[in-house]
Automatic annotation (TrEMBL):
GO terms for molecular function: endopeptidase activity. The chain crosses the membrane at residues 35-58, 64-86, 107-128, 148-166, 187-205, 239-257. This is CAAX prenyl protease 2/Lysostaphin resistance protein A-like domain-containing protein. Residues 1-25 are annotated as: Disordered. It comes from Actinokineospora terrae. Keywords: Membrane, Transmembrane, Transmembrane helix. It holds the Pfam family Rce1-like. Residues 155-242 form the CAAX prenyl protease 2/Lysostaphin resistance protein A-like domain. GO terms for biological process: CAAX-box protein maturation. InterPro entries: Rce1/LyrA-like_dom (IPR003675). Signal peptide: none annotated.
Length: 258
């Protein structure tokens, strides 16, 4: 086709008109706070069922390695699976609904807030241990593996879960699903940050450690708040969990005691 002659206004219009913008997929998901309540119910009920089955198996079974691994991992894994299903069935999928991404900015923001959190958590844990005493300062997982030497494979599995997989699951639930549910209620961003941090701490169901968990949750929540994406808070949570995961590994191998 021959080009339009010089001075033809159609040429200028074609040159100046911007390209058509890409169609943005819909972000108006149909799930809300009720979805979080459903997911949390899955977590609690699965934990109750597992504990009941352990009780039926007899008192000696509570110290078995399989019970420690199953009781630690399965309830959170089932709750995470329920979260992903909710976003698929009632929304646009986890990548859009949960703002789930991994890029260089997520890594940078996550590392920054994760390292800040690691320092804050270490200081807070030392103060908190002085207040409550060493006997009560141990987490529920620490008490489970204390004096329970595990095979190397099981100990490494638990280490990787506490360090990498557990934070991924928890972030999907709390700063993915819960955060999105509160945003859908048109809460302010700082209110969403505050409430998700509080619920994150309380829902660990360790009343004595709630204040410490609040300190842990603040920098992780700030990573989500400042980046606007889930990937940053996942990285921050994983960085923050490295030290406790290493402690669990050493305890479960019998190298140190809680």
């Amino acid at each position: 086709m021959a080009p339009p002659p010089p001075g033809d206004p159609t040429a200028a219009t074609a040159a100046e008109s911007p390209p058509e913008p890409a169609t943005d997929p819909g972000r108006d998901h149909k799930w809300g706070f009720g979805a979080f309540l459903f997911v949390f119910a899955v977590f609690v009920l699965s934990a109750v069922v597992i504990n009941a089955l352990i009780g039926l198996a007899g008192p000696d079974s509570t110290d078995s390695i399989a019970v420690i691994l199953v009781g630690t991992m399965v309830p959170t894994a089932l709750a995470t699976l329920a979260t992903l299903l909710v976003t698929r069935i009632r929304g646009n999928g986890p990548k859009i609904d949960l703002r789930w991404s991994y890029n260089r900015d997520d890594l940078r923001v996550g590392l920054k807030f994760g390292l800040i959190g690691l320092v804050c958590t270490t200081v807070a844990a030392a103060i908190w241990t002085r207040v409550v005493g060493e006997q009560d300062a141990t987490s529920s997982l620490g008490r489970l593996v204390d004096n329970q030497t595990m095979p190397v494979a099981a100990a490494i599995t638990l280490f990787l879960y506490v360090w990498l997989v557990g934070p991924l699951f928890e972030e999907i639930i709390y700063r993915g699903l819960l955060w999105g549910a509160l945003e859908r209620l048109q809460w302010g961003r700082w209110a969403v940050f505050a409430l998700t941090t509080a619920i994150f701490a309380v829902s660990h169901l360790e009343p004595l450690r709630t204040s410490l968990l609040l300190v842990i949750g603040v920098p992780i929540g700030l990573a989500r708040l400042c980046s606007g994406r889930l990937g940053a808070s996942i990285v921050a949570h994983q960085v923050n969990n490295f030290t406790p995961a290493l402690a669990v590994l050493l305890i479960s191998l019998g190298v140190m005691h809680s």
